[in-house]
Request: fold
Amino acid sequence: MSTDNPMLSIQGLTKTYASGHVALKPVDLEVRRGEILALLGPNGAGKTTLISIVCGLVNPGEGRVLVDGHDILAGYRETRVRIGLVPQELHTDMFETVLDTVRFSRGLFGLKPDPDHLRRVLEDLSLWEKRDSRIMALSGGMKRRLLIAKALAHEPALLFLDEPTAGVDVELRRDMWGLIRRLRDQGMTIVLTTHYIEEAEEMADRVGVIHKGELLLVEETAALMKRLGRRTLRVHLAEPLERVPDELSDWSLELEDGGMVLSLSFSPAEAPDSVPRLLRQLNQLDLGFADIHTSQSSLEEIFVELVREQS
Amino acid sequence: MSRPAFPRFNTRGVWTLYHFEMMRFRRTLWQSVVAPVLTTILYFVVFGAAIGSRIGEIDGVAYGAFIVPGLILLTVFTQSLSNAAFGIYMPRFSGTIYETLSAPVSFFELILAYVGAAATKSVILGLIILFTARWFAPIDIAYPLLMLSYLVLVAFAFSLTGFIIGIIAEGFEALQFVPMLLVTPLTFLGGVFYSIDMLPEPWRAISLFNPIVYIVSGFRYSFHGSGDVSLWISLGTLLGLITLCLAIAARIIHTGYRLKQ
Ligand SMILES: Nc1ncnc2c1ncn2[C@@H]1O[C@H](COP(=O)(O)OP(=O)(O)O)[C@@H](O)[C@H]1O
Ligand SMILES: [Mg+2]
Reply:
């Protein structure tokens, strides 16, 4: 296959489950070779459904899906051998050893044994020392890395990671991010799903935002973050205020918690100096404050905003 | 990155699944061999030695030798059904089936691997019981090649049935239901311990509705050169069962029933 056609091309894909639930409205998406694409969406958005269809776990509705130019139905062997899937849930055997289970994965995908490759994969995931351990003796983090090792055993070109860091603590999340970057640097195309904005921002070259089965947009991460990345600044005052002082009327400030908190919603991209400017002005007005706190808008707020923008 | 075209048949994938299943059996080898062998020995002690000595011969065959084919099949039936059913039900239950479903393995290959592994195990168990039986009864096998082929065919038919049960089952109880509550009683009533000609009417006529009678009879024919019904009827029954199972399997393949949403 030529190298300039997309690694994954989804055209008008729909899915309605037997229950009648519409999990995917017509979805169009192209994933470029060598990129990390994050599918960002809240629980129930249809991320797992989308991935599962491409990987062959769920029957597609209408539409067409091509992997490296091959149709996922007519050419399922060609598409599946190119795809590695790391599922959301930790589905593992118990009694197998680590090395046996990655050998199994490679064989299942029809590839001839390659002990060197499997060793490299296990070493890369810090599992080589555990190669003779039974899976049930592994920690949750190790099991997740083992699922990645299994997905890499047959040297896929396209890797799907379904919520790779859901429920993973901060430090391990960083490790996971490092690992995903290394895989991309080795030439892998990666699609990951997440409901953490920071994760999409940190990892992805492009982000697709999916909500209620609808792919709202796909954009370069930096451009999207500029649009989406609203933050909220909360200033906890030393003394309560009755109303927002007139001197501050240029800011769209709100008083909360019985006048104890001044809150400002702002876009760091449009006004990067908002925080220092406001604080300076508070100082000039001699308004004492005990604490300040900034936070990202929640995913739900962002979706509401996006849906409003779209319509 | 250019890849060679994927082969038309994923031989390595089938072998890998088959091997995985055989390793799973090996881990539970003792319990799966000991239980049927012990039960068979008990049958021989009770029916062969204690009671059998009072019964004498059936169709010119010593009673101890007469019950051997049926006892072998009793184990082959139940083991084929439950092993194949568990084999496919477990990964469905634990979720690990995702990997097989996302692999370049066709449903046909999937069935071949799972059913092949379960049938292999049953044939091995059947042969172990046959060799165990030789300690208790003199056994002449009239048609050894027929006996072996018939054994393989029975193991395949019942493993395929078990596989279908494992696909349809929504809980562990369902897995045990068919082997324990259907096939075992039908086998006991199906001429394992007696020739149905020994039954008074109407029981003899009723027995003829039990398909197990025909299947056991064919196996006994390969040992003793005679059965309750002709060998062709036995083979026909067996092939009918296999055809029925294949039709259901084809349906499952076509719709992805219970495997794919
Ligand atoms: N097998 C199924 N049958 C019916 N509805 C389903 C099934 N699987 C998922 N759904 C529904 O489809 C929607 C999308 O689910 P999913 O793709 O798992 O979302 P996500 O991965 O984004 O959290 C959800 O509302 C979910 O309840
Ligand atoms: Mg999901």
About this structure: The pocket of magnesium ion (ligand 2) is lined by residues A 47-48, 88, 162-163 (CB under 6 Å). Chain A touches chain B at residues 1, 17-18, 55-59, 76-78, 80-83, 85, 87, 89, 91-93, 95, 100, 104-105, 107-112, 150, 157, 187 (CB under 8 Å). Chain A has a mean pLDDT of 89.
